[in-house]
Write a structure and sequence with these properties.
The protein is an alpha+beta fold. The chain folds into 3 domains: 95 residues, DNA Primase, Chain A (Alpha-Beta Complex), CATH 3.90.580; 104 residues, no CATH class; 112 residues, Dna Topoisomerase Vi A Subunit, Chain: A, domain 2 (3-Layer(aba) Sandwich). A 5-stranded antiparallel β-sheet has the order 4-5-6-7-8. The chain has a 4-stranded parallel β-sheet with strand order 10-9-11-13, sandwiched between helices. A 3-stranded antiparallel β-sheet has the order 1-2-3. Helix 9 packs across helix 12. The longest helix has 13 residues. Keywords: DNA replication, DNA-directed RNA polymerase, Nucleotidyltransferase, Primosome, Transcription, Transferase. This is Toprim domain-containing protein.
Amino acid sequence: MKFQDVKAAASGRWPEIVSSLSPFDLRTALDARGRKHVDCPVHGESSKKPFRVFKDFAETGGAVCSRCGNFADGFALLAWLNNCDAVEAKNQVEAHLGLSDRNTEISVRPAPAPASKPEPKAPTANPTWARRLAQWWSEALPLTSPKSRPARSYFHRRGLRGITNWPEVLRMHPALDYFESDDQGSLTKLGTFPCILAAVIRPNGKIATLHRTYITAQGLKAPVPAAKKLCPAATDEPLGGVAIPLVKPGEVLGLAEGIETAMAVTLATGMPVWAAISDALLTQVTIPDGVRRVVLWSDKDQPSKSKPEGAGAYAASVMKDRLGAMLSVHMPPMVIPPGEKGIDWLDVLNQHGSGCFPSTTQSHTPDSNRAHPQRLFRRAS
């Protein structure tokens, strides 16, 4: 289809389109609705917040980053976020909207020979964050270390009790500074805290970035505005496909949004479950070779303007389109309490126990991971 036709169909739906197709989280920018600048979704936190969407973003999809450039419409924005050209961005939007060229005349001329694809662009390093991520990870301790007691206490307090073997992708840094920025982009240090680090892994096995959970020495969430943060990546390569692989997969792999949610499902059912960090990244997790069945343990979220069915349900529908019969979806059975943004399977475990989890016996093969989820993750006897 022509650009103008796809553009007309996308008008009014750009928040939904970009949230679905981009691996980066733009919720902070979308919530601001162009009233203020926020951190760049690609390059992360900085002393000066450079990014904002335009006030007419729903209609145009336009945005600007004082560091990265001006993006006049949603096609230009997606091309930047997904590291592709405008034509590919248009094709992605067209496919997302389910559009087709029904009125295009069929040509009787032979089709031209396909052009050779250009070599993929090599990722550009982000030296500052590459060094910082490597340093933090090397300084962090395994959760089995006696000095990692605050991290173990945190998971215990969250309801994840009795774990004896801890995932190797989780570590605890003994003391990380926490900075918060104001509307003008000025950074203020609010303290130094223990911090749980989770390695976010690309399909090629390399660490893309780190997820941080700031805690106290007693194992509580740190008293800061946002205790959980995703670090900027070490390169500008899109994050699509990444996950936090808490447990080695078998023929069945479970997926969940949050780390604690994934751990709760593994404790309750024995199923190996990976965390995907956000609903946007959840829809793009690369499924490893050998996995024959995927089970999505979805969050149940309140509706929003861009996702009236709720972010968890929307992600489930996107994944169903992508994986088809390979995917099963489980949604928490409880009603979202008044005043809460949503509920997840950790809430189910804490409020009703593992007996409230649906049976997964049909999802497992005879050599299932139920008894020994990689020996990384089991309850104390």
